[in-house]
Design brief:
The chain is 44% helix and 12% strand. By secondary structure, it is α+β, with helices and mostly antiparallel strands. The strands form 3 sheets. A 5-stranded antiparallel β-sheet has the order 3-2-9-8-7, sandwiched between helices. It has a 3-stranded antiparallel β-sheet with strand order 4-6-5. α2 crosses α4 and α4 crosses α8. The chain is globular, with a radius of gyration of 18 Å. The two termini are 22 Å apart. The structure holds glutamine. It catalyses: L-glutamine + H2O = L-glutamate + NH4(+). Belongs to the glutaminase family. Its EC number is 3.5.1.2.
Length: 304
């Protein structure tokens, strides 16, 4: 079966799970999303692209943005970044405060919120217009100048994100935030509020499946060994504290977001983005995870 038909078949099957999960509602604006959406897009380094369902509808990428800000921070700071952030799965909620206190303000990994705030801080210390630069970076990666921040989502999170504000102040109290918490939070809420479609996200993540090079332009985004490391981090920390179950079922490095999107990559082969807003108990897209599982089962393609 060709990939296009396979995606359509999987989309149909995964849609059967709609109604079984819950849309994230702790960010009020996200609760307004249509729960029945389902999209899927796959890109290969040779330029092949297939998609099914609502693959062209922009959604809030939320924590998927953490992969791209990590890439920028590694470009800026290289391995020095690891003096301020760990590389282990957290085993606790992505917005937990307790672990941060126990571990003296060094977040376990760059994909929990505390780690992502430090990443955003690193970018903000180096680049004057960090928000603008991130947008430019993302537009370049996906080749779509039309993508933008969803201001309503950013404002919604800004006005209700007390836990993230607490994390930022906490980091600052440990000396692990160089910029004002308000400045870092503003950049962080905007990166989470990037609105992109499955096709945009799959295209943006393709360098991770292509040794760090953007296939469309031949431009090197990061050195190949960094790609291996980002993929490794996605594998062990990219899907909240169910990364083990996700690896067991799907078998691909991936990063999910509470908007219901998941970016997964198979190095050397493809990048794949699914979106379905209803989440499972651990915060990953319910139908999206199932769709990825079906894809790796039916194609036999996974890192394992
Ligand atoms: N903006 C969300 C938050 O900080 C992102 C969380 C997520 O997608 N895991 O709470």
């Amino acid at each position: 079966m060709d990939t296009q038909s396979l995606l359509e078949e999987i989309a149909l099957e995964a849609r059967g799970l709609l109604g079984g999960g819950r849309v994230a509602d702790y960010i009020p604006e996200l609760a307004r999303v249509d729960p029945d959406r389902f999209g899927m897009a796959l890109c290969r380094p040779d330029g092949e692209q297939c998609s099914a369902g609502d693959a062209e509808v922009p959604f809030s990428i939320q924590s998927i943005s953490k992969v791209f800000t990590l890439t920028l921070a590694l470009q800026i700071a290289g391995d020095k970044l690891w003096q301020r952030i760990g590389r282990e799965p957290s085993g606790s909620a992505f917005n937990s405060l307790v672990q941060l206190e126990q571990e003296q303000g060094i977040p376990r990994n760059p994909f929990i919120n505390a780690g992502a705030l430090v990443v955003t801080d690193v970018i903000g210390s180096r680049l004057r217009d960090a928000r603008g630069k991130l947008l430019e970076f993302m537009r370049g990666l996906c080749g779509n100048d039309g993508i933008n921040f969803d201001e309503a989502v950013a404002q919604s999170e800004q006005s209700t994100g007390h836990r993230n504000a607490a994390l930022a102040h906490f980091l600052r109290s440990f000396g692990n935030l160089e910029n004002a918490p308000e400045t870092v939070l503003d950049a962080y809420f905007h990166q989470c509020a990037l609105a992109m479609s499955c096709i945009d996200v799959a295209r943006a993540g393709l360098f991770l499946a292509n040794g760090g090079v953007l296939p469309s332009t031949g431009e090197r985004v990061i050195p190949a060994p960094m790609t291996k490391r980002i993929n490794a981090l996605m594998q062990v920390c990219g899907t909240y504290d169910s990364a083990g179950d996700f690896a067991y079922r799907v078998g691909l490095p991936a990063k999910s977001g509470v908007g219901g999107g998941i970016l997964a990559v198979l190095p050397g082969h493809f990048s794949l983005c699914v979106w379905s807003p209803e989440l499972d108990a651990s915060g990953n897209s319910l139908a999206g995870t199932r769709a990825l599982e079906l894809f790796t089962m039916r194609t036999g393609l996974s890192v394992f």
